[in-house]
Amino acid sequence: MKIQQHKQSTREFFQVTSVCRDDIIHAFTNNPDAQKIARHLDDDDMEILASKLADDYCEQLFWDSLKVIFESSFLRQEKYSAGVIETECPNCKKIIVSGADSSEVQCSECKVIILQRQIFSNALT
Hints:
- The chain is of the alpha+beta class.
- Among the domains are: 21-60, no CATH class; 76-121.
- It has 4 helices and 6 strands.
- The longest helix is centred in the middle third of the chain and has 18 residues, at 43-60.
């Protein structure tokens, strides 16, 4: 994970996933008829399938998954007790122990620096 503080992106959208004919073949490992049909789908058929998959994903899973994955990846997970903070590294999940007055902590394992709910890596770039 290489996230640098104050780095702004010019891109507005980022691709989440894609689908290909091999995905369909894999999903229907025990159904030779479905596999045969998948091999013969044209690009228009695949576009329709991809659009329906995207709609279904957005309607059922996207927002919940976005929150859960964002929180586990980027938000500081802390436990306070007796002036000590235990923080879970969002990159490698190692527990980092620091004083309650620390404004930043660095993971000794992966070198990610966690700074007031913002993280960036000072690892080799």
